Q: What sequence folds into this?
């Protein structure tokens, strides 16, 4: 019974990993670039949400909707921050050096953004974890002895919706075709009129949305936020993405769930100390046996959507 | 004049790929640019479509100065490039490739124009939902041209479209080029298949090491004894080699 309960919990944890892993894989798939600001965006949504819920909403808003509204603003801040990152790192560097496939510099500068933002939040709020005033704990269903919290169910629903919506966007919409065209052949896309400077911000906007949502889900489900909440989630999401295959959305979904499951099962059987060994062991094993990941392309590291 | 280019220079660092090129294409005219490997033909076309920024020069299309315009602005104005090596999206279906050709169009006729491509190329219609990677070289070239055509260009620029095609496909290709031209589309054709290109073109330019060394009507270029010499331009490429590539 406890095992089933752990399984349910792992799906909830996994869905946070999935959302962040999808953000990573989207940027890799389209721009071939590992965006290190993703953990920060995740943290930013949670911390801004907490700060607003704690210190009061803007525009004099208050009432029972305070925490959802606070998280909504947190997600908006994550999206804006992500667009700012595009402006200040990716676009500037691309226009300056003229080669959008040279990603060492955006990679390093996004790492710089991660450290600056994280430490700014630390200076502002300290390093302590803060309790997030989410929905009360009695929103729990007891299904035959298994406890399922309603917010967890809602979160799972949102994640499913987001992933299905994103897949639809990429496969069926005009902007999605533009993104895939840039992913496969930026040059050919360009001469057909796909404007990189218009399409690339869409990737960053979606990244901000996904990370913001994941941060909000985390705050609601675990009732706690901190300036370093992005570190562990971010690295595990990367592990999930690699297990699933770089650049594959469904790979990131499966990989994120597998990492969540591995984590919960390891805690259950061997205790919390062994989690990192298990997750990263799984990653190394995947790289040895199936370097392209579960759903990835054969050209390793050049994952395309 | 549909397209008027003057004093165009393209540089890649120290390489001076196109030197002071002045060319023009009239409304509904076929103009060819000939030249050996590395002469600067692709650089010229890419500068015209806005894929590389020219170091200097002026590009006027349909009376509008497009010198500093983005590729998308040039597509909107009616310029379409069928790039060297076709550059179709192999991870996409045939249909999605054609949809990329109408990327900037929001009018309802776009879907009808794509259907018209299927009528023109039944091979593509049969494979519409297959990945473009399954197409043969000739079919890929048809797809690349179809993709440009659905953008309703007034000027179509083709970069060595006959390269790697079987002789049957080469003659179909040149028939198609004439047909498109008769429907009113101006054509700027870069070719190494000199004979065929001069057969369909009204005028031609010969590029050698980035400079235009000859400019004449296609008829006189075809009779010009120095053409072969200029065309060879000190490279190991020879007409028989060029013909071999098309076999
Ligand atoms: N992106 C680039 N960076 C640096 N040099 C380049 C680049 N593209 C082309 N060149 C150089 O510019 C010159 C002209 O090249 P270009 O591709 O325009 O010639 P071409 O006439 O199209 O040749 P081909 O018949 O082989 O297609 C060559 O010397 C080539 O090496
Ligand atoms: Mg060329």
A:
């Amino acid at each position: 019974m406890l095992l089933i309960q752990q399984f349910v919990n792992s799906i909830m944890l996994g869905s946070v990993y999935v959302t962040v892993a999808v953000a990573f894989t989207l940027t890799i798939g389209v721009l071939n670039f590992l965006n290190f600001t993703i953990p920060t965006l995740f943290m930013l949504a949670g911390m801004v949400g907490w700060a607003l819920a704690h210190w009061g909403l803007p525009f004099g808003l208050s009432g029972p909707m305070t925490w959802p509204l606070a998280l909504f603003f947190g997600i908006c801040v994550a999206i804006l921050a992500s667009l700012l990152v595009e402006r200040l790192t990716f676009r500037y560097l691309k226009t300056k050096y003229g080669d959008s496939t040279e990603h060492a510099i955006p990679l390093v500068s996004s790492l710089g953004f991660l450290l600056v933002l994280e430490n700014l939040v630390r200076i502002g709020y300290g390093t302590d974890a803060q309790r997030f005033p989410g929905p009360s704990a009695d929103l729990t269903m007891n299904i035959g002895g298994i406890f399922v919290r309603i917010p967890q169910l809602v979160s799972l629903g949102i994640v499913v919706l987001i992933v299905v919506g994103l897949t639809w966007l990429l496969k069926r919409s005009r902007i999605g075709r533009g993104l895939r065209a840039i992913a496969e052949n930026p040059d050919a896309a360009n001469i057909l009129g796909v404007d990189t400077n218009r399409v690339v911000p869409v990737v960053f906007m979606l990244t901000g949305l996904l990370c913001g949502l994941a941060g909000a889900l985390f705050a609601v489900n675990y009732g706690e936020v901190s300036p370093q909440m992005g570190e562990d989630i971010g690295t595990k999401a990367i592990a999930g993405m690699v297990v699933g295959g770089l650049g594959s959305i469904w790979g990131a979904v499966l990989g994120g769930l597998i990492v969540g499951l591995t984590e919960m099962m390891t805690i259950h059987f061997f205790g919390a100390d062994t989690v990192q060994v298990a997750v990263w062991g799984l990653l190394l094993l995947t790289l040895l046996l199936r370097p392209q990941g579960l759903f990835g392309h054969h050209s390793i590291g050049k994952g395309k959507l | 004049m549909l397209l008027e280019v003057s004093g165009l220079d393209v540089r890649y660092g120290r390489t001076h790929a196109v030197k002071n090129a002045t060319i023009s294409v009239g409304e509904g005219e076929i103009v060819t640019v000939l030249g050996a490997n590395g002469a600067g033909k692709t650089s010229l076309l890419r500068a015209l479509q806005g894929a590389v920024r020219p170091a200097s020069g002026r590009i006027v299309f349909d009376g509008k100065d497009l010198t500093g315009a983005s590729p998308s602005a040039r597509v909107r104005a009616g310029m379409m490039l069928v790039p060297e090596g076709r550059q179709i999206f192999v991870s996409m279906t045939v249909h999605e490739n054609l949809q990329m050709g109408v990327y900037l169009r929001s009018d309802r006729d776009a879907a009808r124009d794509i259907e018209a491509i299927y009528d023109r190329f039944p091979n593509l219609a049969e494979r519409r939902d297959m990945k473009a990677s399954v197409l043969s070289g000739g079919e890929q070239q048809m797809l690349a041209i179809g993709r440009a055509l659905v953008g309703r260009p007034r000027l179509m620029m083709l970069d060595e479209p006959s390269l790697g095609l079987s002789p049957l496909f080469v003659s179909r290709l040149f028939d198609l080029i004439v047909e498109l031209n008769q429907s009113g589309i101006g054509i700027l054709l870069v070719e190494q298949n000199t004979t065929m290109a001069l057969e369909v073109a009204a005028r031609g330019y010969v590029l050698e090491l980035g400079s235009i060394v000859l400019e004449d009507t296609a008829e006189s270029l075809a009779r010009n004894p120095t053409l072969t010499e200029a065309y060879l331009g000190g490279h190991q490429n020879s007409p028989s080699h060029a013909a071999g590539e098309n076999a």
Observations:
- Chain A has a mean pLDDT of 85.
- The longest helix of chain A spans residues 66-97.
- The CA atoms of residues 75 and 213 of chain A lie 6 Å apart.
- The pocket of magnesium ion (ligand 2) is lined by residues B 41-42, 84, 159 (CB under 6 Å).
